[in-house]
Write a structure and sequence with these properties.
Layout: E1 5-10, H1 19-31, E2 36-41, H2 53-72, E3 76-81, E4 102-104, E5 110-115, H3 120-133, E6 140-143, H4 162-172, H5 178-186, H6 193-220, E7 225-229, H7 233-236, H8 243-251, E8 258-260, H9 271-289, E9 294-295, E10 298-300, H10 311-320, E11 328-332, H11 347-361, E12 371-372, E13 374-378, H12 382-385, H13 403-410, E14 415-419, E15 430-433, H14 443-451, E16 454-458, H15 459-467, H16 471-475, E17 477-483, E18 492-494, E19 499-500, E20 503-504, E21 507-509, E22 517-522, E23 528-530, E24 533-535, E25 541-544, E26 547-549, E27 553-556, H17 572-585, E28 590-591, E29 597-602, E30 607-612, E31 621-624, E32 633-640, E33 643-650, E34 652-654, E35 657-660, E36 669-673
Parallel strand pairs: 1-2, 1-11, 2-3, 6-7, 7-8, 8-9, 10-11, 13-14, 13-15, 15-16, 16-27
Antiparallel strand pairs: 4-5, 12-29, 17-22, 18-21, 18-24, 19-20, 23-26, 24-25, 26-27, 28-31, 29-30, 30-36, 31-35, 32-33, 32-36, 34-35
């Protein structure tokens, strides 16, 4: 059995498909070493809104002959119906024969085709269609990522239809208008009961829906795995998604959690940018689902062909799925209009060439909960606890908990993502906390987390500590004041009396592509080691920025820019600061002089994954291990030609560093076993 599944998403147009297209498809499956084909049903340009039973059967009848041919090749079949709620209306309307109600957003706009998830007729319809799909006994039967309450163009957050408003009113015990309810959901300050009611309702109705689908499908095809495609985890917090409960109700007894995490690059983007969003979306999703989940990340080259993404970048995306422990990948390489296979794209040769390498490194599959290093904390319940600023736009409900995972991994630190609950405890760990995550914890739990661990805190998390009345107790704070960016107050931060990358007293912008500055004043004689200070444009010192409190609390008192996030922090001076600070406090794994190369080290330190998220080549790998390495040799596995190279290498001990005289090229992933 293969260690890494290639699942090809493929469209047949039942009306225009030809034997010639079928032959090209079968040849591609063989040449590209495809293991599974997920046939689209009613997708994209061919979509005709929600289909009746008869209309659905036409798609299944077109798939069956190819399913039989694939079975003769040992290739399994899955089904990918393209609609649950519906991605967007696209001028369509719900067939009166189906006749369920549609979404209404926060502004009262009503969809014409997108189904209301509280309407029992929609649930009955969806369960009936999925039972019909199950008659083909597919390996996986997918729910598309339109299974959500947001991003249904052009609507905003949903659903606030009359049926939902009645549900909300009953739970609140009062009559309230849509506008007033939405205002309370988004209201600034302490979260309201209306917010809790909205999120709890959204959470439960999706759980109830997948439970009904699971029963209907497994009554027809017990062996089929039900699987869910996911979107951005911070946006899923806006609908109160309970990841494990949702998946466990979807898959049913005896089936694994099967998911398609989003790979955030439908078009080719800078590998540097991809490395950041990969952490923020793909890795966080994988963490929520757990190490035993079967993950098939989605690779989509939209609008298809070499004009939107190079073959080399596509290959890079496939190989770096090793960093979430993927068991395979969903390949959306060709259009969904019915053109079939386009051989000129050159995918078959590439897929066949890299398959042996991916299968080899998958023999030692990465498990995120067993990666040592800095633990970035996230919480699926943050939508319930976050405090909005203006209370106007739904995006104010988005958690900002992803910032450390992108920054620190880009700086070459070994990191992992840890989902938390209100009862989660840590001791003697290195934790990174951003956004308002701490609002999910009671005060005694916050005290326990801060006092018993090495903790990195950003400005928003510091503000939560201050709001809870713990600023003086935990951080020795005397006062604090926010200064908005580009107001003429702060201009740059400077690492006084420090030397980094050969530059003395290096400066980092606080003016551009950055958030606001939280100016902190500490109590006299407090154990606070100032590492950087803020200055205005005339070199006047304004107060501290980065500091180490009580030798274990590292503060970076900035929030995020609405457009640019933490972009100003991505500079070598900051990498050097974090490496120096953390090395002086504890032992951590990181790479040296290898910008944008990611490191993952397993808990025992004997398996290492290194991925180069740049187009630069490095002649040597320099690793600062968290624990002493006794061995002087190891084994490296890297891609080579149509196979892979596996050879012995020397581990050169140079003080606290391990040097490996092996190159790592741009867009390359390697595995080292010690």
């Amino acid at each position: 059995m293969t260690n890494f599944i290639y699942s090809l998403r493929y469209t047949i147009d039942p009306r225009t498909n030809t034997p010639e297209k079928d032959e090209k498809f079968i040849n591609f499956v063989k040449d590209a070493k495809i293991d599974n084909v997920a046939f689209f049903i009613n997708p994209e340009e061919l979509n005709a809104s929600h289909l009746t039973q008869t209309e659905t059967q036409a798609w299944l009848d077109a798939i069956i002959p190819l399913q039989e041919r694939l079975a003769q090749l040992g290739v399994t079949t899955s089904l990918n119906p393209w609609t649950t709620i519906m991605h967007s209306d696209r001028g369509q309307t719900v067939n009166p024969e189906i006749g369920f109600d549609t979404l209404v957003d926060i502004n009262g706009r009503k969809a014409t085709s997108m189904g209301c998830p509280a309407d029992p007729r929609w649930r009955d319809y969806l369960a009936a269609r999925y039972a019909q799909y199950a008659t083909l006994h597919p390996k996986e039967l997918w729910l598309e990522d339109d299974f959500r309450h947001y991003n249904h163009t052009p609507l905003k957050l949903a659903c606030f239809c009359d049926r939902h408003m009645k549900i909300y009113q009953e739970k609140l015990g009062l009559l309230i208008s849509r506008a007033a309810f939405v205002k309370e959901v988004l209201q600034s300050g302490q979260p309201t009961e209306a917010r809790h009611v909205y999120l709890a309702t959204a959470r439960q109705e999706m759980i109830d829906t997948v439970s009904q689908i699971e029963q209907a499908v497994h009554a027809v095809s017990r062996e089929t795995n039900l699987a869910l495609m996911t979107s951005f985890p911070n946006w899923h917090a806006m609908e109160g998604r309970d990841w494990l409960t949702l998946f466990d109700n979807l898959v049913g007894a005896g089936h694994p959690r099967v998911a398609r995490p989003h790979l955030p690059a439908y078009n080719e983007i800078s590998p540097l940018k991809y490395g950041r969003v990969f952490e923020e979306y793909t890795r966080i999703t994988a963490a929520y689902l757990g190490d035993e989940a079967v993950l098939y990340p989605e690779l989509e080259n939209y609008m298809y062909s070499g004009f939107v993404k190079s073959v080399k970048f596509t290959q890079f995306q496939i190989e770096t799925t090793a960093l979430v422990g993927a068991r395979g990948i969903l390949l959306n390489l060709f259009d969904m209009i019915g053109n079939g296979i386009n051989e000129s794209y050159g995918y078959a040769k590439m897929l066949a060439r890299i398959k042996p390498f991916i299968e080899k490194i998958s023999e030692h599959r990465l498990k995120m909960q067993q990666i040592r290093g800095i633990k970035i904390l996230v919480n699926q319940d943050s939508g319930f606890t976050i405090q909005t600023d203006k209370g106007i736009d739904p995006t104010e409900l988005l958690p900002h908990e992803q910032n450390w995972t992108a920054l620190l991994s880009t700086f070459g630190f070994s990191t992992t993502v840890i989902p938390t609950s209100a009862k989660t405890k840590f001791k003697n760990q290195v934790l990174a906390i951003s956004g308002q995550l701490l609002r999910n914890f009671a005060n005694d739990a916050i005290v326990d987390i801060i006092r018993n661990n090495i903790v990195l805190l950003d400005g928003e998390s510091i503000q939560v500590i201050i709001d809870r009345g713990l600023g003086a107790e935990l951080l020795h704070l005397r006062s604090s004041e926010w200064h908005n960016v580009r107001t003429g107050f702060q201009s740059f931060e400077q690492a006084d009396n420090k030397s980094i990358e050969g530059v003395k007293n290096p400066r980092i912008t606080m003016l551009q592509h950055t958030g606001d500055y939280l100016q902190l004043e500490y109590q006299p004689k407090a154990d606070v080691d100032i590492w950087t200070s803020a200055y205005n444009s005339t070199d006047q010192s304004l107060g501290s920025v980065m500091a180490v409190i009580d030798k274990h609390i590292i503060v970076m008192p900035m929030n995020q820019d609405l457009k640019y996030g933490w972009e100003s922090q991505y500079v070598g001076y900051k990498q050097g600061l974090y490496q120096q600070i953390l090395t002086g406090i504890t032992s951590v794994d990181y790479l040296v002089n290898m910008p944008n190369v990611k490191l993952n080290v397993n808990s025992t330190g004997n398996i290492i994954w290194i991925s180069n998220f740049t187009i630069d080549d490095y002649d040597q790998i320099i690793w600062h291990p968290a624990t002493k390495v006794l061995q002087t040799n190891a084994k490296i596995i890297k891609r080579s030609g149509n196979y892979f190279e596996e050879k012995e290498i020397n581990l050169i001990h140079d003080g606290s560093l391990i040097k490996i005289n092996e190159p790592i090229n741009g867009l390359e992933t390697i595995q080292i076993i010690i």
